[in-house]
Design a protein that fits this description.
Helix content is 29%, strand content 22%. It is α/β, with parallel strands linked by helices. Helix 6 links the parallel strand 5 and strand 6. Helix 3 crosses helix 5, helix 9 crosses helix 10 and helix 12 packs antiparallel against helix 13. The N terminus is likely disordered.
């Protein structure tokens, strides 16, 4: 096992992993999520079932992402989503000055398949133009060292906080002088996803999980340190399904996830997002579909990389995932990897819909498509 094991656990194919019948599924504490009343910003947010997909063939030139084109795509997405004519008013629908705003990126597959800097910089620029200060912003993910590896650093993003739950010090050590993992100080034991599956890890894997047992604790980043979250996943597959908005949030926000892949991948994607720290704080999802993959995901397998030239935006993470699913599966079918969408590929979205997190029924989704070039 070891570090490689922890990484491998995050790329389990849900098509192969989640074979048990619903009657055989381990129990979870999902009923606890409903005990806290929903608020005005709760998922699916301001625009349930509405998704904007902007395409622009000029967004990649000579295999490089063109930042101005990306900026224009995101700006158009925001105007189409909100119906506003001014970009500042569109952004102010979701965030306000004084709020602590998190940008949830996905660097897990490394530099070649991470949320792109061009997309993140475009989002930051538009937030600043809307009156949001850089000091209000936090770029975050589960593993701080993975953020560093792909370039989300103070040097590249001056004035913006960069943090993760699982951390190491300058000497490359995961444990502090108190003998505890740095990650232990980042988890909130008052907020947890309990599942009747035991997490057991060796000494090499534990820094990637923070704790074992049957509890997955939410990171303090979402429970204590942020008021609003903008989710910026990348457009990629996980077997014959996708790992976009819901997966990026769920597996990126709790500890002890290695135990959840084999039996509860779909449930975790949906149920973790139903708890208040995510349900009530994630106000916007912007899928980076400029570059992505159609096979071999969510890890990085360059032979399956492609340019989608696409940005998908919505407040409803379920509807966003459903549209992203259509894009990725269409490419997989065109490449001869599968003949049709599979029901299993939609399972986590259907579960999320039952939890009132958004719209999974394609016929009920209002898709606004824009082609800029």
């Amino acid at each position: 096992m070891g570090a490689a094991t922890a990484t491998a656990a995050s790329v389990v194919n849900p098509e192969n992993a989640d074979r048990e019948t619903q009657q055989d599924k381990p129990d979870t504490n999902i009923a606890d999520a409903a005990k806290i009343a929903r608020g005005p910003n709760s998922m699916p947010g301001l625009y349930p079932g509405r998704v904007v997909m902007v395409k622009n063939s000029r967004s990649v030139r000579d295999n490089l992402i063109v930042e101005q084109e990306v900026y224009d795509m995101i700006a158009r997405s925001m105007l189409e989503l909100t119906g506003e004519k001014k970009l500042k008013k569109a952004w102010r629908k979701f965030v306000k000055p004084g709020e602590r705003i998190g940008l949830k990126v996905n660097p897990v597959a490394g530099k070649s398949l991470s949320t792109s800097h061009e997309v993140v910089r475009a989002v930051i620029a538009q937030l600043e133009e809307s009156g949001i200060k850089r000091s209000q912003l936090t770029i975050w993910d589960r593993r701080e060292f993975e953020l560093t590896d792909v370039g989300f650093t103070q040097e590249n993003y001056p004035g913006i906080r960069i943090t993760g739950t699982e951390q190491m010090d300058k000497e490359g050590l995961y444990y502090g002088k108190d003998g505890k993992l740095y990650g232990e100080h980042m988890i909130d034991r008052d907020w947890y996803y309990w599942a009747d599956v035991e997490g057991e890890y060796d000494e090499y894997t534990m820094p990637y999980m923070v704790n074992g047992g049957k509890y997955s604790y939410f990171t303090k980043i979402v429970t204590q340190e942020l008021d609003r979250i903008i989710n910026i996943p990348i457009l990629k597959n996980a077997g014959m399904t996708v790992t976009l908005a819901l997966k990026n949030l769920a597996f990126g926000s709790v500890s002890n996830t290695g135990r959840l892949h084999a039996k509860l991948w779909n449930e975790t994607c949906a149920q973790v997002c139903a708890f208040a720290p995510l349900r009530d704080k994630v106000v916007l999802n912007i899928v980076d579909g400029i570059k992505g993959c159609f096979n071999g995901g969510p890890g990085a397998n360059p032979q399956f990389f492609c340019d989608y030239h696409t940005i998908i935006t919505g407040s409803d993470p379920v509807a966003v995932d459903r549209i992203g699913f259509d894009v990725v599966i269409a490419r997989r079918i065109a490449e001869g990897l599968q003949k049709a969408p599979t029901p299993q590929g939609l399972e986590f979205m259907l579960q999320a819909e039952k939890l009132s997190l958004g719209v999974a029924d394609r016929e009920k989704i209002e898709l606004r498509e824009v082609i800029l070039g």
